[in-house]
């Protein structure tokens, strides 16, 4: 396959973008913006080098809730005419700019509004240091268009440079080459020389410092958080070594982390060169670092080889979960990776149950037309995707599969892919007409059929077998404080808590809490799993801790199950609404959009 055959011209159109890249496409962005914390507005210019492939007279960008003030053509900035089309839910409005056949540069002067869902403006109280405000963006899946007018499709890649003006006492970082120190002008410049899709545009502004881990890796965080983060993520260099050994050279120069305030709505976001992470993985024992392996793995699956549309999301996340587990296996051994696989399988079973295993949304290849892509982004892509790849690995052997994957990354590097392109590659490079193998791999069953294929292999874990043994002896009467739980990691605890019956007596709850201190755990995964039981069993001794968790943490993955558990009873629902009113100012729009619908 030639690179041209894999390029834009072949890409199927993206139903979540107004852009028509086959006609006129952006290649490079020069961003020149100012960040105003008083007004909570970003304003400035987005200038694009464009290619007018069709030599027509318009180019279309995506916008949502932006003020478009003026548009200019050419480096000399001649004003041109433009219009905003009709607003569509989730998608916003197309910005249609009149150009000439020879136009190669377009400048859009704009400002953001209060509706910029990508942005979260934090007041000082919402930060660890409590002294300075903080701003961060979250562009995936289709929110880049709420803070930059952009061709907002993962099938389109641009390089970028940026000039960002921020208040003097703050520092700015982006998904690009970054400063390692604050300067005294508040003016920062950035360069991203590798072409990236729009959902990887990222900016954060706040009081932050940098500390190195290895020569190529390091951490940005608020001064109050940096030391805890340096301890927690000390192994990130090892992860980079392991990842390169598996899939080839890291292609983005540096790999740094930015630890955000707790309202960050995700666990992690793989912004190139600078992964954004939640502080809820700072467990003080390095037990939740598979999240870093995950975001690092995206440097290959996602950032280097990118899902061309959100219907192909499993190509980003399923591959990344598979790689995350491989990195963890490399560093911590198979026993460790087995635990992650079993927990992942449990998540998958739960999602299948919630969606219904006949639901079309349980196919790997999705159909999200007319919907917010956020809706399709479930554990199916992550875990069913992972188990599909593990199934292929089992069928051909690890060595062959690794060779195949390395070739896939090389072939599609800095390109967008999609389910058909991947499956073609699988057929020509691996299956090669072997009918028995094709049957084993079962593309139809995994990719296009709802639910899980009957012949899938359920993962097992020897360390969890010990957890189950301890749990069973508790169930048959052994006191909790006499169980063999020495050396359990947070994964073993999580498994234990998930094994607990739905209905427990106050006495049982109190016994467990006294023996293991769950309500006061410093581990967010343990806390979130335990609170499900305290809510169900009306164990009010944990109410204060639950309240504190819900009003300080903004990570959607934790919030949604907890609020869902609360609203199953009328009293719980009242409690949930009361907490939500207080907690909401602390949540990012990504979380409140989901929770508003749940709690209305
Ligand atoms: N890219 C995702 C986060 C994401 C997905 C944001 C879709 C917006 C839309 C990131 O890599 C991710 O998967 N994060 C997970 C952690 C991971 C260990 C499963 C999360 O945030 O929980
Ligand atoms: Zn991911």
TrEMBL record:
Catalytic activity, as annotated: Release of an N-terminal amino acid, Xaa-|-Yaa- from a peptide, amide or arylamide. Xaa is preferably Ala, but may be most amino acids including Pro (slow action). When a terminal hydrophobic residue is followed by a prolyl residue, the two may be released as an intact Xaa-Pro dipeptide
Keywords: Cytoplasm, Hydrolase, Metal-binding, Metalloprotease, Protease, Zinc
Record localization: Cytoplasm
This protein's record includes keyword Zinc: yes
Record keyword Zinc present: yes
Family annotation (SMART domains): Leuk-A4-hydro_C
Residue intervals of the Peptidase M1 leukotriene A4 hydrolase/aminopeptidase C-terminal domain: 461-599
Entry's EC annotation: 3.4.11.2
Cofactor needs: Zn(2+)
CDD domains, alphabetized: M1_LTA4H
Highest taxon listed in the record's lineage: Bacteria
Enzyme class: hydrolase
A Pfam family hit: Peptidase_M1
Residue stretches spanning the membrane: none
Family the entry assigns: Belongs to the peptidase M1 family.
Name of the molecule in the record: Aminopeptidase N
Protein's organism: Pontibacter aquaedesilientis
């Amino acid at each position: 396959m030639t690179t041209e055959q894999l390029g834009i011209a072949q890409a199927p159109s993206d139903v979540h973008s107004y852009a028509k890249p086959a006609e006129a496409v952006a290649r490079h962005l020069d961003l020149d913006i100012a960040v105003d914390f008083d007004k909570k507005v970003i304003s400035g210019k987005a200038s694009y080098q464009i290619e007018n492939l069709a030599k027509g007279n318009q180019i279309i960008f995506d916008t949502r809730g932006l003020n478009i003030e003026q548009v200019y053509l050419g480096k000399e900035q001649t004003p041109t005419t433009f219009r905003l089309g009709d607003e569509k839910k989730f998608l916003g409005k197309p910005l249609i700019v009149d150009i000439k056949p020879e136009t190669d540069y377009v400048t859009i002067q704009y400002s953001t509004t209060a509706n910029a869902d990508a942005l979260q403006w934090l007041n000082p109280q919402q930060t660890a240091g409590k002294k300075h405000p903080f701003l961060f963006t979250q562009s995936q899946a289709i929110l880049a268009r709420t803070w930059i007018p952009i061709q907002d499709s993962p099938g389109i890649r641009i390089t970028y440079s940026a000039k960002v003006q921020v208040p003097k006492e703050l520092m700015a970082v982006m998904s690009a080459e970054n400063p390692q120190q604050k300067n005294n002008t508040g003016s920062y410049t950035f360069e991203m020389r590798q072409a990236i899709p729009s959902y990887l545009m990222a900016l954060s502004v706040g009081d932050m410092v940098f500390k190195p881990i290895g020569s190529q890796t390091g951490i940005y965080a608020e001064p109050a958080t940096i030391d805890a983060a340096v301890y927690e993520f000390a192994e990130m260099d090892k992860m980079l070594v392991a990842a390169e050994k598996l899939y080839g050279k890291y292609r983005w120069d540096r790999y740094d982390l930015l630890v955000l305030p707790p309202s960050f709505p995700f666990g992690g976001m793989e912004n190139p060169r600078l992964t954004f992470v939640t502080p809820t993985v700072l467990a003080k024992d390095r037990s939740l670092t598979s999240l870093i392996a995950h975001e690092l793995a995206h440097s290959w699956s996602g950032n280097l080889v990118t899902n061309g549309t959100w219907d192909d999301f499993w190509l980003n996340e399923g591959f990344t979960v598979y790689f995350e587990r491989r990195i963890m296996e490399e560093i911590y051994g198979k026993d460790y990776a087995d635990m992650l696989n079993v927990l992942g399988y449990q998540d998958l079973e739960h999602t299948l149950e919630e969606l219904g295993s006949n639901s079309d949304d349980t196919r790997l290849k999705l159909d999200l037309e007319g919907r917010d892509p956020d809706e399709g982004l479930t554990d199916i892509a992550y875990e069913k995707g992972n188990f599909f790849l593990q199934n292929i690995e089992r069928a051909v052997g690890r060595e062959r599969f690794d060779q195949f994957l390395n070739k896939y990354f090389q072939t599609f590097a800095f390109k967008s892919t999609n389910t058909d392109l991947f499956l073609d590659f699988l057929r020509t490079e691996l299956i090669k007409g072997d009918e028995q193998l094709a049957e084993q791999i079962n593309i139809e069953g995994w990719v296009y059929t709802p639910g899980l294929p009957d012949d899938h292999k359920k993962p097992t874990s020897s360390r969890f077998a010990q957890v189950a043994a301890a749990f069973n002896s508790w169930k048959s009467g052994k006191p909790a404080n006499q169980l063999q739980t020495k050396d359990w990691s947070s994964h073993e605890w999580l498994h234990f808590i998930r094994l607990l019956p739905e209905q427990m007596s106050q006495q049982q709850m109190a016994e467990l809490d006294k023996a293991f201190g769950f309500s006061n755990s410093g581990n967010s995964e343990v806390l979130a799993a335990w609170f499900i039981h305290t809510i169900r069993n009306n164990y009010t001794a944990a109410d204060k801790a639950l309240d504190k968790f819900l009003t300080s943490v903004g990570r959607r993955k934790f919030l949604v199950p907890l609020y869902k558990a609360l609203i199953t009873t009328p009293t719980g629902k009242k409690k949930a609404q009361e907490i939500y009113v207080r907690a909401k100012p602390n949540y990012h729009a990504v979380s409140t959009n989901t929770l508003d619908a749940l709690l209305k």
